[in-house]
């Protein structure tokens, strides 16, 4: 641009045309600089995007590996708990079976003891009834003998009384 500030005179059409040309050149230069900056910015963005995608892929792979590892450990623990549960169920079944068999044996022994007690009670009752019947028969025999003896005693008493009367008469006659 021409330096027309010294005299402070108004700009001429030639000055304005010169300024327009200079400004166009600067704008054109700025436009190409802007395109270059835009291209650099796009390249940087692409580079950053590519780096971020690479890092994201790396983190994703690491996370997948960790998730697989945790999943594997969980599967192992679940399997261990499942096996432990199966073993506990088996042990419980065995214990229940032992208790059941013990109960059956105890019931069998109790039945045997009850049978022995019932047999002893039956025998005792039978012996008691037999002894009772014998006692009743003896009592009846004693009653019969008492009746017979009482009759004999009455007869003998009568005879004795008759003999005494005769003896007294005989003694009185003498």
Outline the secondary-structure elements.
Blueprint: H1 13-173
Q: Can you characterise this structure?
A:
With 174 residues, the protein is mainly α. It contains 1 helix and no strands. 0% of the residues are buried.
- Mean pLDDT, to the nearest integer, reads 89
- Biggest pleated-sheet summary: none
Number of helices: 1
Which structural category do the helix and sheet elements fall into? mainly alpha
* End-to-end distance: 218 Å
Low-confidence stretches: none
List descriptors.
mainly alpha, single chain, rod-shaped
Short recap of the structure:
The protein has 174 residues and is an all-alpha fold. It is 93% helix and 0% strand.
């Amino acid at each position: 641009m021409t330096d027309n500030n010294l005299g402070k005179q108004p700009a001429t059409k030639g000055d304005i045309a010169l300024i327009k040309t200079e400004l166009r050149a600067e704008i054109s230069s700025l436009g190409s600089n802007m395109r270059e900056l835009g291209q650099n910015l796009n390249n940087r963005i692409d580079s950053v995007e590519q780096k971020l995608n690479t890092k994201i892929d790396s983190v994703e792979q690491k996370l997948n590996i960790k998730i697989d590892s945790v999943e594997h450990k969980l599967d192992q623990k679940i399997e261990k708990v499942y096996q432990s549960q199966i073993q506990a169920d088996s042990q419980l079944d065995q214990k229940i079976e032992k208790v059941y068999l013990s109960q059956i044996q105890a019931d069998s022994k109790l039945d045997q003891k009850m049978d022995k007690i019932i047999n002893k009670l039956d025998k005792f009752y039978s012996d008691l009834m037999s002894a009772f019947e014998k006692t009743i028969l003896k009592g009846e025999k004693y009653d019969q003998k008492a009746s017979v003896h009482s009759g004999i005693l009455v007869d003998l008493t009568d005879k004795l009384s008759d003999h005494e009367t005769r003896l007294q008469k005989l003694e009185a006659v003498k």
